[in-house]
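Quick one: Secreted protein from Streptomyces prasinosporus, structure tokens please.
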Amino acid sequence: MSIRFTTKAHRGMAALAVAAGLALGVAGCGGGGDDKKPEASASESKETGSNPSAQEGQAEEPLAELKGSNGLLLQVTSAERDAGGFVTVNGNLKNDGDKSLPIPSALSGNETEIIKNGRSLGGATLVDSEGKKRYYVLRDTDGRPLTTTGFSTIKAGESLTVFMQFPSPPSDNVSLQLPTFASGTIQISG
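--- reply ---
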């Protein structure tokens, strides 16, 4: 075969692939003539009240609710132990107040290594009363806390999904402490 014929064949194949991709894209976006609006998706749902949606993979009732300053509320939705020896605590940080609030910088804790990485929940600890030990938020090899980071304000009525990862204590009943918040007892599963 000549180079000219091969080049034309490759162009034709490329054009056919682009046309097929466009046809599939148009068919996928077509909607099928159904003008009804879909129900609100899980990502669009707004929480009103204190009960997270079970459909979003969270418990019906929070494990604990920790009240903070100026109407901030941390609802702990899960605390799971994994096989690697870690505990991941998930929750929602909610502004129950009537105006936007800056997230207190004290939540990051007071350790220089964590503070230099920006706002986080790096000041959180788990306290095992039975073992008389305190477990601090884990850090990666660069000193960044293994928590939700990069937030500065939260609007009135909004909530922010958060997580914190700790070394796994031997006890299943521990107290979660977060600076500027009341502490709460949580049950670790897994």
